[in-house]
Amino acid sequence: MEERICAIALNRIFGFNPAAGGALISRFGSARAVFGASEEQLQDMLRGRPDLTAAVLAEDLDLDRIELEKLLQNGLDFIPITSEDYPTLLKECNDPPVGLYYRSGSPPKKVFESRPAVAIVGTRNMTPYGKYWCTEIVRALSSSAKKPVIVSGMAYGTDFTAHSAAIGCGLPTIGVLPTGIDDVYPVRHEPLARLMDETDGCALVTDYPPQTNPLAINFIRRNRIIAGLSSAVILTESKIKGGGMLTMRFASDYFRDVFALPGRVDDVCSQGCNLLIRNKLAEPITDLEDLVSKLGFGFKTRSKASFREAVEIKCASLDRGKASGVLATALAIKAERGISLNEITERTGRSFAEVASDTALLETWGLVSVDLLQRCSVNSM
After folding, report:
1. Which pLDDT score, from 0 to 100, does residue 305 have?
2. 132 and 41 in a common domain
3. Pick from 80, 110, 76, 115: which is nearest to 193 by CA?
4. 73, 95, 118 — which closes off a domain?
5. Number of domains forming the structure of the chain
6. Domain co-membership, 144 together with 113
7. How confident is the model at residue 307 (pLDDT cuts 50, 70, 90)?
């Protein structure tokens, strides 16, 4: 308890300078020992920062004790860097936070150490292309022999999609908050947070004290932790500047594996990904099985999905009306090899334009082929 209380105090003081806080703990052997050090010893360690020395000497540990008691009463916790429960990968970084606030129904060892961690990050304003491939990447990871935990930042867009897809595919997920552990940002994602509380192996973490508001500067520390917790980071979509690009920079600094999903040359939402690939700062994702292989996870042996199952899986990212139409077109092709677009129109009652759009999508997915006479057939699976 005393070590956690003292670590809470040091985390509050050195939140934006974690390397200095970590150096103090390393020098004196524990967070508790730092508060037993003399002013001269602290000054010697914190040369040029008399404000930090004064902050350590003036810290009221009784308030930190009250904070920890409230955390525990509410089913929350704080994990100091000196604890065996602190994530190993994060501790190996050159600037890990002094501690992590922790919210989960599972023990920290199970969350942080039982699986490899892969971060998936990107823009809040994701496109249908980004949403589709974010979901497909998670699905591919869920089919690997060594199933990972998915790490992201609980934000709109890519983060929400990654967390939700992970739970939907049976993978645990870790959300890193830009606020105190007593809050969820954005508020609309509180149902997701509750679902994570109830799902085995999931957790919410942050290094911000309770009642910390989501200020813009806070997202930098959040992104650093996302990269630090993960053995690899995947960027699905990003403009030239953005939180996802910053996370990739942290990941590179921490010598993590970094991957980016290429996009259209003229798509502003893919400019960041394309830039990283062009400058050879990230591996391009061009094949999901290849991605899983490069991550070292390996695909488990499994029976092939039926044609209908394959179509339904691909349609998961579409709206209900579009998905229903594509499935109807696909089943018409399955029922009669060499069926023409006009014949599909008659069989399904859909317009020629809709059927043409459906078959183009199915062909893009590699599920059907359309010849020069517009005759359709199912590809072997």
Report:
1. 63
2. no
3. 76
4. 73
5. 3
6. yes
7. confident
- Cα separation of 7 and 13, whole Å? 10
DSSP string, 70-112: HHHHTT-EEEETTSTTS-HHHHTSSS--SEEEEE-SS-HHHHH
My answer on whether 208 and 246 are in the same domain is yes
| DSSP H/E element including 284 | strand 283-284
Closest CA to 107 of 88, 79, 80, 82: 79
**In which band, very low, low, confident or very high, does the pLDDT at 303 lie, cut at 50, 70 and 90?**
very low
Q: Is the pTM of this model over 0.85?
A: no
Among 100, 69, 82, smallest CA distance to 27 is for 82
Q: Which amino acid is at 306?
A: S
Nearest-Å Rg of the Cα atoms of the chain is 25
Same domain for 184 and 63: no
Name the domain boundary from 16, 49, 73: 73
* 113-137 mean pLDDT: 94
> What is the span of the domain harbouring residue 58?
2-73
